[in-house]
Amino acid sequence: MVTSLIIIHIFFLIVLFLLSRIGILKPGMTMIPIILLVPVFGSLSALLACYLERTRIAGTKASDLEVMKSSLVSPQEMPTREEEEGGSVPLEDALLIDDAQMKRSILLDVLMQDTDRYVQVLNEARMNEDTEVVHYATTAMVELLKEREMSLQKFAAMYAENPDQDGLLTEYINYIRQYIYSGMVDGQMLEIHKATYMQLLQDSIKKYERKEDYFSYLDCLFENKDLSPIKDYLVLFQKKWPQDEKTWEYRFRFAYENGDHPEMERLIAESREDGHYFSKKTKEIIKFWEANNNHAQ
Questions:
Q1: What global pTM score does this model have?
Q2: Environment class of 59 (CB within 10 Å of its CB; exposed 0-12, middle 13-18, buried 19+)
């Protein structure tokens, strides 16, 4: 699989080189590292950016976006910054507005301000019936992905150079976790970043032995349906954090995923013994597993 990825990556590099030679593609300095260091996805991002550059009516810089906005809404209708901040329309609702010009204007505000908060909505906007809204949302996502990939490359370089730098590993883990669960990345790129995330969690576990890192790593194992290592971790959790509600949740989930109905019944009975105090949320989870166990039998 790795060999195939390398071959495809080299093929895309050749195509991009030929396109740049004949003047069709003009990658910027910030795009070149992504093309070279991010297999396949980096090249596809460059091609998409090139397509958008050749078909768009204006750029994506703040000044260009202001021009777009002013061309869509008259100065009399355009709200002031104070009005926008005090009584802004949520982007989710804005996409339902029937007025195409106002919908585009609101989306442009997002591109100029806080794109991170609206990743999911931007993904929905890319499916909008308004082609210009689709164009703006796609452009924003390409720029945002480029920034994220560049930041991850910087983290990787810093961690490789100085893995013992105070706070770096924790910051790296938090950043890549937010990225992979943001919905921005999928497919092979998601698998690559997820593998990096899990390796970083293992590094952190060896270094700090933090409960949160153990739990995050176990979440990844469950998501990947990789159940074989989980039993040993559960044994460890029962020794270190026997009364932690997450330990109980993992024990129930592991029994359910393995179809171990006797173990489910034993856990349900054990959870009802005196001395165990659970939050309302955990009680509901236990009821959920009990209902699923009864249904499966």
A1: 0.61
A2: middle
